[in-house]
Write a structure and sequence with these properties.
Mean pLDDT: 96
Low-confidence stretches: none
Largest sheet: 8 strands, parallel
Structural class: alpha/beta
Radius of gyration: 22 Å
Number of strands: 21
Distance between the termini: 74 Å
Strand content: 15-25%
CATH class: Alpha Beta
Number of helices: 15
Bound molecules: N-(aminocarbonyl)-beta-alanine, zinc ion
Length: 484
């Protein structure tokens, strides 16, 4: 039976994480079926002229929070609006987070999030947060990995009194993840220190958003990153650090990697290009809209982060897309501790990285693909179904116009938030066409996303690899000496 090609992308330069070459891409039934030179357009197929453009795997954002209930409110972007906005920016898959309330069964929370996500226009998968511990958590981690396609668990080392994990929970969860072959991820900030600093700063009379970064200095992130890494090292489990924002945390990552420890790290697009001067903006609204954790950092950290990304010590780029509109931010009008933490950007990540990364020579186009798509697919085990342009892969693609321009603005973006942290930034390099599982979902500035068209993506564990680690640990383990 011959395959009926529905779409042929012709004349573009195909860029993957490992190469760049002139080739056409044929799509049938939502999959890539052929990649080659001068492919024939069959009758009835739509031909997309990609001359002058790059054809790349659709972006994967490994860190978003659509419609997250958080800090007394709910993130304004839902799974439909959020995945649609992602399409407008060239991103075709998100990894979001199930965050159970303390004492809530992980499976119940997971089911709740699946219900919410059923409206997504683009494909998605979930990390599941471990926010507390008892035998049911142990059991549910097993069920989630074996039956529900979850292979990563998240640990918040901050947000004391809410979703924070102490070391006991970290140790229990990391040990369980090792048994299951799942990946542990951490939000690395010392929550006890943040709590103490928040009270001290507030009592000093600093109540505005400028208090936020003062309560979360880089040392607080560096300490937690190092602690999580050391715990992972002792327990023999790989680790993924989300939103690495400062040199202190990057140093902990670098040391571990140089010692041969398997530590992956993510950086947010906004931490690469925005510095902490935003908190001194005389306009309260502007400053409050930058309240996120970890906060924006002094400029020297940005250079370190770029170097980390260029050298491969930072593997993925994300957004931590977690939108709150102005009335929500105003919940903390008189107290920075109550400003819901989070910023948007799922629509902007790819262009910001192309403009500031590729156009400045920091990244090659292939490196851009690696850090915006392929590395996330590999680390979270959906490669090469996602993050690749090979026959059999999902046809999640972006036809990238390297000379197209956009002035980023809340007035024109598709994100459900009344503010944009990149407001006024002119970027060169935009998605001309975005394709999700074979369907054109963004073209000539028009969204064609369909509510509910997104699919859950199963992510199996890495059992064989973890088994190898376990064997190595057993070899190194001391044995008791039997005497007389
Ligand atoms: O400020 C942030 N990052 N909000 C979302 C929750 C988190 O810490 O990732
Ligand atoms: Zn976080
Ligand atoms: Zn987050």
């Amino acid at each position: 039976m011959s395959t009926t090609i529905s779409t042929l992308i012709k004349g573009g330069t195909v860029v993957t994480a490992d190469r760049e070459a002139r080739a056409d891409v044929a799509i049938a039934d939502g999959k890539i079926v052929e990649v080659g030179v001068d492919l024939e357009a069959r009758a009835g197929a739509r031909v997309i002229d990609a001359s002058g453009a790059y054809v790349m795997p659709g972006g994967i954002d490994p860190h978003t929070h659509m419609e997250l209930p958080f800090m007394g409110t709910t993130a304004s972007e839902d799974f439909f609006t959020g995945t649609s906005a992602a399409f407008a920016g060239g991103t075709t898959m998100i990894l979001d987070f199930v965050i159970p309330a303390p004492k809530q069964r992980l499976l119940d929370a997971y089911r709740q999030w699946r219900e919410w996500a059923a409206k997504a226009a683009g494909d998605y998968s979930f990390h599941v947060a471990v926010t507390w511990w008892d035998d049911t958590v142990h059991e549910d981690m097993g069920t989630l990995t074996r039956e529900f396609g979850v292979n990563s668990f998240k640990h918040f080392m901050a947000y004391k009194g809410a979703i924070m994990c102490d070391d006991e929970v970290l140790v229990s969860s990391f040990s369980r993840a090792r048994e299951l072959g799942a990946l542990c991820t951490v939000h690395a900030e010392n929550g006890e220190l943040v709590w103490r600093l928040q009270q001290e700063i507030f009592e000093l009379g600093i109540h505005g958003p400028e208090g936020h970064p003062l309560s979360r200095p880089p040392e607080v992130e560096g300490e937690a990153a190092n602690r999580a890494i050391r715990i992972a090292e002792v327990l023999g489990v790989p680790l993924y650090l989300v939103h690495t924002s400062c040199e202190d945390a990057l140093q902990a990552v670098t040391r571990a990697q140089l010692e041969g420890q398997r530590v992956f790290a993510e950086v947010l697009a906004q931490h690469l290009v925005i510095d902490d001067s935003v908190y001194r903006d005389p306009d309260w609204r502007t400053a409050a809209h930058h309240v996120m954790s970890p906060p924006f950092r002094a400029r020297r950290h940005q250079e370190a982060l770029w170097q980390g990304l260029q050298s491969g010590r930072l593997h993925t780029t994300a957004t931590d897309h977690c939108c709150f509109c102005t009335p929500q931010k105003e919940m903390g009008k008189d107290d920075f501790r109550k400003i819901p933490n989070g910023t948007g950007g799922v629509e902007d990540r790819m262009s910001v990285l192309w403009h500031h990364g590729v156009r400045t020579g920091r990244l090659t186009p292939s490196e851009f693909v690696r850090v915006t798509s392929t590395a996330a697919a590999q680390i979270f085990n959906v490669y090469p179904r996602k993050g690749a342009i090979v026959p059999g892969a999902d046809a999640d693609l972006v036809v990238w116009d390297p000379s197209g321009t956009r002035t980023i603005s809340a007035k024109t973006h598709h994100q459900n938030i009344d503010f944009n942290i990149y407001e006024g930034m002119e970027v060169v390099g935009v998605p001309a066409i975005t394709i999700s599982r074979g369907n054109v979902v963004w073209e000539q500035g028009q969204l064609r996303s369909e509510r509910g068209a997104g699919r859950w993506v199963d992510r199996p564990c890495f059992a064989p690899y973890y088994a190898a680690i376990e064997t190595a640990r057993n070899l190194a383990r001391p044995t008791a000496v039997v005497r007389g």
